[in-house]
Amino acid sequence: MEIDPFIFRLSIFILSIFIGYYVVWSVTPSLHTPLMSVTNAISSVIIVGAIIAGLAGNFNNDFTISNILGFLAISLAAVNIFGGFLVTQRMLQMYKKKKKDR
Amino acid sequence: MSANLSAIFYLISGVLFILALRGLSSPETSRQGNFFGILGMTIAITVTFLSIGNFSSGLTYVLIFLLIGGLVGAFIAYKIPMTAMPELVAGFHSLVGLSAVLVAVSAFLNPEVFNLGSPGSIKLASLIEMSIGAAVGAITFSGSIIAFLKLQGIMSGSPITFRGQHLLNALLLISIVALTYLLCATQSSNFFWTLLVVSFLIGFLLIIPIGGADMPVVISMLNSYSGWAAAGIGFTLENSALIITGALVGSSGAILSYIMCKGMNRSFFNVILGGFGASEQSSSSSDKEHRPVKSGNAEDAAFLMKNASSVIIVPGYGMAVAQAQHALREMVDTLKKNDIKVTYAIHPVAGRMPGHMNVLLAEANVPYDEVFELEEINNDFANADVAFVIGANDVTNPAAKNDPQSPIYGMPVLDVEKCKSVLFVKRSLSPGYAGIDNDLFYKENTLMLFADAKKMTEAITKNL
């Protein structure tokens, strides 16, 4: 009997939860705010689905309902992607070590 | 681009996202980590365009919307003050939630594009995955909106409770399961729309009973939800990048919620059921009015600190409200010039989100190796001369250690009272968020500095 591809996706999912568990525990507490903003940015990879929806279907009509929903989702996710990564960058740039001369 | 090839690229971007989180294990590697994250995202988006291969006029619109969103995001990222980080993160969560809902609805209306069957006969597994993604996305959206409004102060931070609240929430949650079942059995779109409405309602009802200072838990929890929503959509789209990311974000948010709950010695359910800080005021309010308090001014504080050899600073939410972090850094610079050793002590739940205080101090150019977590620094209070508490209250309350009647009993607190003297910058004697009095205010070695945190620190600096 063949294994349903769903099972493979489920395996990826479960293993990723475990990876996430160990990786996140190793994040230093002082970087918990950047952690939240970067997880925010990467979870917007949902834009992949939005792009598929936005480009879906027929060549004569670019504005079916599901296209429009896709466009909206694209702009929302894009706010998050750019906003999330850039604000994380801005925060991380502020974390500095003590100057050597002290 | 073939489906197999794009699947491999999605896997690569999933791995890059893991490395992005891994980078945050230390500030040195964190910037590289963020770069990996950006790279992963770029790969995922590019591969999606290539694998669809539809370069018709629709593409123009997609790029236009991408650009609009990107510009708005970039603008916000550069403009936002660091003190508003909790609101920003809550707002961003709501966007993830809403885009998950939109993608799910789009897939429901036009399943052929996503290879899920045709309208009216969508594959059973896809339908379940879609419902989960849409429901969790909707809960994330409305919950985050409420969290945002509370953090922004548009909505009162005090918990809103009513009779039968928990029963109502439980019934609504059960109805989600029932609706999903009916949707799968009948494929009728009415059930899908009802499911969405009920989910929006749950998100709203779930967050309104939770008070302002429990926001660190709420934000982490919504962070987790946004991950599970993404994972649900990932299953629908059979996309490994989304599944991996969803799982990472989901567990990240869950761990942060756990850390925050532990920092308050409360169970997750206790926080979720809400209402904390609304009712408990009876125990100590009767005898507090006539206890003597020593209050001082900036000169007294400057005198005390000038004669100290080590000072520990305990910042809290009040510092963020007063935007006092820069003034504080200047004060510390002056202290250091006088060869006084200064360190910072951060309680896990100080502020309105995990790591809130650390970011503010970093913004004010405080080197991160002078900033310590509770466990690292708690023993040092006994050897320090002055503890300078600025805008914190409950996290220093000794009642958590010695009063079993206190609502915060058992919560880990900073042992501020062990210092030779304690300086408390506070606007008034009012109790903290938990609605309980702090014995520390009446201790012999405590000097209260009643003023706005920023003005007081500036005044102290002048007097040093």
Textual characterization of the structure:
- Chain A is mainly alpha-helical and 102 residues long.
- Chain A has four helices and no strands.
- Chain A has helices spanning 5-25, 32-43, 47-54, 65-94.
- Chain A starts with a helix and ends in an 8-residue tail after the last helix.
- The model of chain A has no long low-confidence stretch (mean pLDDT 88).
- The model of chain B is unreliable at 278-288 (pLDDT under 50).
- Chain B is elongated, with a radius of gyration of 25 Å.
- Chain B contains 18 helices and eight strands.
- In chain B, helix 1 packs antiparallel against helix 2 (27-52), helix 1 (3-23) runs parallel beside helix 9 and helix 6 runs antiparallel to helix 7 (189-207).
- In chain B, the strands form two sheets. Chain B has a six-stranded parallel sheet. Chain B has a two-stranded antiparallel sheet with strand order 1-2.
- With 464 residues, chain B is of the alpha/beta class.
- At the A-B interface, helix 1, helix 2, helix 3 and helix 4 of A face helix 1, helix 2, helix 3, helix 4 and helix 8 of B.
**Helix and strand run of chain A:** HHHH
Oligomeric category: heterodimer
Unreliable residue runs of chain B: 278-288
> What is the rounded Rg of chain B?
25 Å
Task: Assign the structural class of chain B, choosing from mainly alpha, mainly beta, alpha/beta, alpha+beta, or little secondary structure.
Answer: alpha/beta
Low-confidence stretches of chain A: none
- The fraction of residues assigned to DSSP E strands of chain A is under 5%
Tally of DSSP β-strands of chain B? 8
Total helical segments of chain B: 18
Secondary structure tally, helices of chain A: 4
Shape of chain B: elongated
**Helix/strand/pairing class of chain A, anyone?**
mainly alpha
Radius of gyration of chain A: 20 Å
Number of strands of chain A: 0
State the major sheet of chain B.
6 strands, parallel
Overall spatial form of chain A: flat
| Residue share in helix of chain B | 55-70%
Strand order of the largest sheet of chain B: 5-4-3-6-7-8
